[in-house]
Amino acid sequence: MKVSQHPCARVTSPDSGWTFPDSAAYSRCVRSTKPTSAGGRARKPRSRPSDATLHIGAIWSVPEVLRTLGADPAEVCAEAGIDIELFDDPNNLISYHSGSHLFRVCVERTGCQYFGLLVGQKGGLNYLGLVGLLVRYSPDVGSALRSLVRYMHLHIQGAVTTLEVSGKTAKLDYEIYQADAEATDQIGDGAVAVLYNIMRALCGPNWSPLEVRLAHRKPDDVMPFRRFFQAPLLFDAEENALVFSSDALRHPLPEVEPELRRLLATQIEALEEQHSDQLPEKVRSILRTALLTDHGSASQIASLFSMHSRTLHRRLSAVGTSFRELVDESRFEIARQLLTDTDADVSHVANVLNYADSSAFTRAFRRWCGMTPAQWRVRQNRSRTARR
């Protein structure tokens, strides 16, 4: 199994732990060495010791979409620092950042502003390995989606899929927590398209969501989105999500041999054992949704892992981090994505992150990266314009 890291270094894992050093982690975030108003150096969350990974199967159709758009997949991948041969096996791994960088390069080279949507349209359960099989062989849609949410981290790290049910509606969303991810708008479009395909595979070709939420500005051309989703679209949303009737959760799936389901569950649990020491990554994977729903206290997060908050603090300290650092890291990433991909004003972002007011949020943001939210947004807009 090959493993690639951006920009050019590639690591080959014999079979193993899938933990790979990446000095690019937070160093790719915009940072400043100018003194803050307090006279000290700008501080930001600690760099991660390793980068999250994803299986190539998650972006399997990138070469095909590139060819359709008239680009040479080998050349584009080489420019992004990725060996095209990695696409020979969907189980090959690359860092989440490398995958996101590839998306950015693909958009720049093809000029297609809905590249992520095109890639996602071709995705589905077939590209999720054992996780996809367990989802497909569940007794009903609700069980299938709960399995998807629980085990998606075995296929993709750097983002989390969640399911929220409230009365007559349900929401299936995909949130990126990898700090240095690029082209988050493209990745979000692709992920929601994959979730849409999964829902149709489970519920049938006539299934349709009540609303499709996309966490980026409304594009100049919305027709590709309307043609594919055939449902109301909400741009500038706080999340990438499908909202649908909760009745779909009760939809039964074709029966399979219970032994087959048990065997799949056993194999997946064995894979989970390989990731049992990755508590910081697991905390990151749920913090974003927890913070957005005002359930991000240490005691609330600890309860999700069936432990006391003191135990959570102690175990995080043992691996060189803290709950406060992970919260700051997650808040910073949420803020960056909303400021970069949407037109939400600073006061709205401050409210989303549960700050008392925009001044408190601005002070925190300056502490993280040495500039104000407004300065960050101007810089990102200039970079985006320069790349076009």
**Helix content bin:** 40-55%
Cα-atom radius of gyration:
20 Å
Number of domains: 2
Unreliable segments (pLDDT under 50, ≥5 consecutive)? 3-50
Summarize, please.
By secondary structure, the chain is α+β, with helices and mostly antiparallel strands. It is built from 16 helices and nine strands. The chain folds into two domains: 249 residues, no CATH class; 111 residues, Arc Repressor Mutant, subunit A (Orthogonal Bundle).
Keywords:
2 domains, four-stranded mixed sheet, five-stranded mixed sheet, Arc Repressor Mutant, subunit A, alpha+beta, disordered N terminus
What does this structure look like?
The chain is an alpha+beta fold. It folds into two domains: 2-250, no CATH class; 277-387, Orthogonal Bundle (Arc Repressor Mutant, subunit A), CATH 1.10.10. The protein has helices at residues 62-68, 73-79, 96-110, 115-121, 129-136, 141-151, 184-203, 223-229, 258-274, 279-292, 298-304, 309-318, 323-341, 346-352, 358-369, 373-387, and strands at residues 2-4, 10-12, 53-55, 93-95, 159-166, 169-176, 211-213, 233-234, 240-245. The chain has a five-stranded mixed beta sheet, sandwiched between helices. A hairpin with a 2-residue loop joins β5 (159-166) and β6. The two termini are 36 Å apart.
What is the element layout, followed by pairings?
Elements: E1 2-4, E2 10-12, E3 53-55, H1 62-68, H2 73-79, E4 93-95, H3 96-110, H4 115-121, H5 129-136, H6 141-151, E5 159-166, E6 169-176, H7 184-203, E7 211-213, H8 223-229, E8 233-234, E9 240-245, H9 258-274, H10 279-292, H11 298-304, H12 309-318, H13 323-341, H14 346-352, H15 358-369, H16 373-387
Parallel strand pairs: 1-4, 7-8
Antiparallel strand pairs: 1-2, 3-4, 5-6, 6-9, 7-9
